[in-house]
Description:
With 375 residues, this protein is an alpha/beta fold. It has helices spanning 106-119, 125-133, 152-157, 174-182, 228-241, 264-275, 285-295, 314-331, 336-351; strands at 13-14, 30-32, 64-66, 140-146, 164-171, 194-200, 216-220, 245-258, 299-304, 307-309, 356-367.
Amino acid sequence: MTNPATTTQQSGAIPAQPGPREITGVTGGVRAGGKPGPGQAATTGVADAAPAGNTGTPGLGSSVEFVPGYAPDAVIPGAGPSGRPGSRPTVKLREADPDDPPRYAPEWLELREPADAAARAHDLLDPLRIRLANLPGKSGVVIHDLGCGTGSMGRWLAPRLDGAQHWILHDRDPYLLHFAAVSSPRSAADGSRVTVETRRGDVARLTPDALQGASLVTASALLDVLTREEIDTLVAACAGAGCPALLTLSVAGRVELTPSHPLDAEIAQAFNDHQRRDGLLGPDAVTVAAEAFSEHGATVRLHPSAWRLGPEQARLTEQWLRGWVGAAVEERPELRAEADVYLTNRLAACAAGELRVTVHHVDLLALSRPVGGAS
């Protein structure tokens, strides 16, 4: 694998980028030479983080070439069950072997980014803007993005907030941190400067000291891969620092497919059970987090943020279906024969433009009691 030191800074400020730029020379069986469009993410990959042989993921203008051997019906890592039962399918929260591959492939994060952006709850932004505007003695805001992946949260939120912003990007994966840094926005809604730094580390071990000076904590699709203890740690850190938290796209445990099928409910239940493995909260996470923030005196707002997938999102729907059914079968192997037929039929309907899917999520805004007299 590529030496992490060559692909990301572990900590320290990264100057505002002059524009999306070409990434070349990445080793590990991957070559990346495509330039993204304005405001879009550069993307590449590592050989053990994505299906080999993929000739590129459309959508962000990138060109990614892998070694031969790609199976067209493969599940992009991060879109479905991880490689072994009980391992986490997303950000790494605990110490791992340095050679342990990333759980999220950049291709999956890139594929879902437009749906994530369309789903996030705009109604939570006004109360957040009011809080940030009332911070005392601030010439700008400091935003910690936990489990940042390729930085989609920053690309969505930074251009929607006024004023200078400094983003601190947290993830266990140095490759994703690199992509997030080079594709970060350069200006806020009012043209103010946006800067960024990266930090590799364990988001489940945050303390109020680690968030000292933070104006906001954000995360996307993170809560549902945490345990109750990890959520308590995160909430305590935010409350101790007196900073608000905007935590988006937590799975709600509900999926609607049109047309419906008799096996939908059984697959959904098995998937939800898979999400709760090893003490993870899965679809219960947002309720647990809301209660924990409330116990610390925070004002909590919840808002739905569903993916609504139709023919225009067929590639995302295909990958989501493979991962959704795959996780259900991993949880309940006795479903395999029925599930194989079910998946074949669902994929055919998707390819024909006849399938629509609503995947329910919830966004959470917690306004913790300010520290130091802020209102």
